[in-house]
Write a structure and sequence with these properties.
By secondary structure, the chain is of the alpha/beta class. The protein is 38% helix and 20% strand. It is built from ten helices and twelve strands. The strands form two sheets. The chain has a six-stranded mixed β-sheet with strand order 2-1-3-5-6-4, sandwiched between helices. The protein has a six-stranded parallel β-sheet with strand order 9-8-7-10-11-12, with helices on both faces. Helix 5 links the parallel strand 7 and strand 8. The longest helix has 17 residues. The radius of gyration is 19 Å and the shape is globular. The protein starts with 6 loop residues before the first strand and ends in an 8-residue tail after the last helix. Bound molecules: NADP nicotinamide-adenine-dinucleotide phosphate (NAP). NADP nicotinamide-adenine-dinucleotide phosphate binds next to helix 4, helix 5 and helix 9.
Length: 285
């Protein structure tokens, strides 16, 4: 029940209409009987500073940030957590004592999605893409103990920039164009797709085919709509272990939830709400 004590968390981005974060967070607030609500606001870049100041003024515990504001938002925040500093982008903001602190919970999302998997750290890890999700995936792989990364991207200059950023963190990094990704993938123990290739409605696209995917590798697709992308189907055909981007979505949300409320996130409730919102399972309620 919304009343005079309800606290407002939200998503700001442009567009935001396809987000499943409202369903995921509101289900979690309900499950823990917390007097919070989560809404989504379409905010243009020119209004970003006003939105941050407005949320501070009303005493919001914090908010999520999505495309295209994940980098621009940094200039309107008071401080950055190490995760956001390393990635160079923010997807979660916590407001405390009038100060806004930026985090990147996508890093945690990738780490949790890969936890408990049989990771072969002696082999290189490949990240396909060089945007925000790719940077978060690269930082997560380094945190997980991988010491050599291969960055494959459509625009080679951006792959080069990300590889050089990884080297500056003390790790080995190579880069290539998407056309060479298939050749270099053969030596990799894990491959993460951090491009929108295969995302609804272009579900026929894939960054790699089964013949290019090593049988003993782990394949994570950051894309979660559809749940089983063409890339994951190609990986299954190759005999690889697959991890859905839904896990990243749920755990990045869980971390944000914990930062705002101080309560342990009901991860299973959040996963079920995301699946319902994506139309994967029927809403019985
Ligand atoms: P971004 O910053 O815009 O970066 C997009 C990346 O994909 C760039 O490297 C871009 O290459 C590449 N790309 C875009 N269209 C392409 C195409 N048609 N062919 C080949 N490469 C293409 O976006 P982002 O935030 O990193 O997001 C990337 C994907 O990850 C999205 O699908 C997003 O929904 C997903 N994601 C999922 C989660 C999750 O929780 N599961 C979290 C974050 C993101 P260029 O450099 O050549 O432009």
């Amino acid at each position: 029940m919304i009343d005079a004590s309800t606290r407002l968390c939200c998503l700001i981005g442009h567009p935001v209409s396809h987000s499943v974060s409202p369903q995921m967070h509101n289900a979690a607030f309900r499950a823990l009987n917390l007097n919070y609500v989560y809404l989504a606001f379409d905010v243009r870049e020119m209004d970003l500073e006003k939105a941050v100041n407005g949320l501070k003024a009303i005493g919001s515990p914090g908010f999520n940030v999505t495309i295209p504001h994940k980098i621009k938002i940094i200039s309107f925040l008071d401080e950055l957590d190490e995760s956001a500093e390393k990635v160079g982008a923010v997807n979660t903001v916590v407001i405390k004592d009038g100060r806004a602190r930026g985090y990147n919970t996508d890093v945690y999302g990738v780490e949790e999605a890969l936890k408990g998997r049989n990771l072969t750290r002696t082999k290189p890890a490949m990240v396909i893409g060089a945007g925000g999700a790719a940077k978060a995936a690269a930082v997560a792989l380094l945190d997980l103990g991988f010491r050599k990364l291969i960055i494959a991207n459509r625009t080679i200059e951006k792959a080069r920039e990300l590889a050089s950023r990884i080297r500056s963190m003390g790790c080995e990094a190579e880069y290539c164009g998407l056309d060479k990704a298939g050749d270099l993938a053969a030596e990799c123990g894990i491959i993460i797709n951090a491009t929108p290739l295969g995302m609804h409605p272009k579900t026929g696209e894939t960054p790699l085919r089964s013949s290019e995917i090593p049988e003993d590798s782990i394949i994570l697709d950051m894309v979660y709509n559809p749940l089983k992308t063409r890339f994951l189907r190609e990986a299954e055909k190759a005999g690889a272990e697959i991890v859905s981007g839904l896990e990243v979505l749920v755990y990045q949300g869980a971390k944000a939830f914990e930062l705002w409320t101080g309560c342990e996130a009901p991860v299973d409730v959040m996963r079920e709400a995301a699946l319902k919102a994506l139309g994967v399972i029927r809403d019985e309620g």
